[in-house]
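Margin note: ligand = calcium ion.
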Amino acid sequence: MRRVVILAGGVGGSRFTLGVREALRRGDEDFALTVIANTGDDLWLSGVRLQPDVDSLLYALAGQNDTVRGWGRAGDTERVNAELQAWGAGWPWFTLGDLDLGTHLARTGWLREGATVSDVVARLNTRWDLGARILPMTDAEVDTRVHLQDGGDLHFQEWWTRHRAALVPTRFENPGIDRARPAEGVLDALAAATDILIAPSNPVVSLGPILAVPGIADALRAADAPVVGVSPIIDGSVVRGMADVCLPTIGVETAADAVARHYAARSAAGILDAWLLAEEDVALAPAVAAAGIDAHVIPLWMSDLDASAALGAAALAVSDEQGRPGV
Ligand code: GDP
Ligand code: CA
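Resulting structure:
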């Protein structure tokens, strides 16, 4: 049994996860796929708890996502949202679809009844046949705050959705994360994994919070499985999203080799054994190798399911080459 664990954010994380699931399905091995999701994007709005990255993964794996818009549920309507706006409730620039609100209401109800975040996500996992299991990174509420030059700070979702990341951040913070614990099953999944894959998600606001939960980075370092990462940066730019605005706040250049050095080699107290770079970045491969990380140059554009599946297969092949346990 191949036990694959992916660390992922929302949209980039979903595309990659769908690709890995497809590659595993096309292969001839039994597999169990676990996705450890960022919950730094979570927030309270109009009385309900939102989990944007968990839901992006959930809807994508379930085939329920709106592929045209890029977020939310396919075929959703916005009647409740219109009412909320008429009341002046919520955020006028943040749309909540009706079907999506059903998920938020269910989640909030369970939380109010005393369920943990792990319990809630476990229930979300059961409705559709996902071919994967989503785990939140932690049960603690550690919502990402964005600190600005003027000294103010705001929730990540407000900075991202309302301001389109145009306000220059000085720092991202997940208050209380140093006291957070990995969610149920996270450390066990990493310890039992045959392959650990770092999705090409935002290194600062998607993978940053996951790796900041005490115990998770240590578990990656201690794991028997190889850890293979995929660059979210191709040819010096982000494919989708705004990682280029986030990376400078942690002193990392928007370049595939710089992100690899940021994660660092497991042999140098980091988390990576291997790193996948785009063909456009072939010149950066030696810099990655010099940091003690195996560099592999392959196409990284996840333009459709076949392209994502090819990337997933390549990541698994690199993991094989690294000598995954059980082979
Ligand atoms: P979010 O939580 O919805 O912001 O999504 P993630 O953090 O999971 O992923 C966002 C990142 O995915 C972006 O910063 C991009 O750099 C990266 N990304 C998106 N599409 C692609 C792609 O086709 N190939 C690669 N290599 N990276 C991508
Ligand atoms: Ca996100």
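The chain has a mean pLDDT of 96.
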